[in-house]
Design brief:
34% of the residues lie in helices and 26% in strands. By secondary structure, it is an alpha+beta fold.
């Protein structure tokens, strides 16, 4: 059975939370249940920016998620899209789920009139980068981060 992608729903909270916790742990980020509650709240708050698609391998069995949002692009006087997080459970990797997520967010971006869709990954994330290279062009930009 092919995987399907859809908007996150209230009943997805437990499975999404387990996936998000695994994603954060794989990136070395400390994540608490309260932090996951905050993000889940954003996903379901129409006034918040964070949107979320989830991927099912079969009905009711989540194997991935993608968090994304719009952002203003002053230089181009346009709106763009940004993928904050993409994750596929290790047991479901290699099945085209990342392709499905990128294509789905890309289609949503087009519907919204966003002129670009961007995301970041680690320079050493070779497996994911091989997929990303099929969909997008690696930019020349270097990311800086100033902690608040």
């Amino acid at each position: 059975m092919a995987s399907t992608i859809r908007w996150a729903e209230a009943g997805d909270r437990e499975q999404w939370g387990a996936l998000f916790e695994a994603y954060c742990a794989s990136g070395g980020a400390e994540q608490t249940p309260e932090m996951r509650d905050t993000v889940w709240g954003w996903i379901h708050d129409p006034s918040a920016q964070t949107l979320c698609f989830v991927v099912e391998s079969r009905p009711g069995a989540l194997v991935g998620f993608v968090h994304f949002r719009s952002y203003e692009r002053p230089m181009d006087a346009a709106m763009g899209g940004y993928i904050d997080d993409m994750f596929v459970a290790p047991v479901a990797r290699g099945q085209g789920i990342v392709d499905l997520m990128i294509e789905s967010v890309g289609a949503y971006a087009k519907e919204q009139g966003w002129d670009v869709l961007r995301w970041m990954t680690s320079d050493t994330n070779y497996r994911a980068r091989a997929v990303y290279d099929r969909h997008a062009t690696k930019s020349n930009w270097i990311t800086y981060q100033l902690k608040g």
